[in-house]
Amino acid sequence: MEGIEKNKRVVEVRTDDRIRLMSAVLAATDYPDASQARKKHGTHPHARGTRRLVAEYTHHPATHAMQVLLDQNIPMASIMNYAMRLTLPNFAIDEDVPRWVPPRWHEHLQKFYEATDLGKWWTEEGDHWETALRHLREAYAHVDLYTFFRPFVGEVVEQFVFMPNICYPSDQTIGFRIGGHLITIMPPPMAWGDSPPWPYKDDPGLAYRAALHEYGGMLMDAYMRQHEEVIGPLAEKPLPLDDKFLAAHSTWHEQFLNMFRAAVTAMFLEDAVSALEAKSFVQYMQKVEQLGTLPNVVTLLRRYLEDQKSGKYETFASYLPVFAKQLKVARTISQR
Length: 336
Known about the structure:
- The chain is mainly alpha-helical.
- It has helices at 17-27, 31-38, 45-53, 61-71, 76-83, 105-116, 118-124, 126-140, 145-153, 204-226, 228-234, 243-248, 252-272, 275-287, 294-310, 316-334, and strands spanning 12-13, 159-164, 174-178, 181-186.
- Strands 1-2-4-3 form a four-stranded mixed beta sheet, sandwiched between helices.
- It is built from 16 helices and four strands.
């Protein structure tokens, strides 16, 4: 990717035992079977091994609490956010916890951790984790997400953290904000059917897509809330997007957010990976996600970057009213 600064800020790639603990508890619930029911896929050997390790703890209080949360459809991001608030090694938690958190869950989690001897298990499985970390660190060493986002949201003050997860969930990427960190947790790239997942190094573009989606969404969500005086009037008029896409995302805020995520992902892939990778992503978004006007959005955002660099626009917020008008014109022309 051209234009990377020598002293660029890097994405922090690491593991966290609190996240790995939650993954192990998930292995003792019905989550693995439910994820296979949603879509058949092979899992990492570490995930299968963890499931065998915790098989006798399906009725443990920590497991029961997790199962209740799953049955209540508590978002996985909320569960992992809670985990990151635990203080190790004593598993302390502040008193200001969400109402959905089961009573004394932190105590049950500590007992689960000790009973299963997870610390020893993670040490034995260290090579698997180190391989995942190495692959992702190599991928992120060559790109600069902080500089990429700057023209859209200003200086990024948060730290990007990217965590591989070779346990569970094996079928979804998770993103959340905690303190000054934006965290993305990603399973290995899913293969087909019962095939084992690909190594992270085999397709770094998928890791970039996960990061752009999660970080971009969190950054732009905060940016839009900070510029409500601009967003408010714009949200009174529907975005010129496909009806199916609009129906899938009920609010103007959500529609714009997902459109932005897709556009910056396509732009980044073209710049950091290849034009072919970007084209494949755009085609997927058009056919599967019904975002047919994505090429127009990309064109307009690229034009904004040029105009912003030349001084025509000081901020993305100052460009947004123009963007809405230009997108409507571009969509009208493309439909002729």
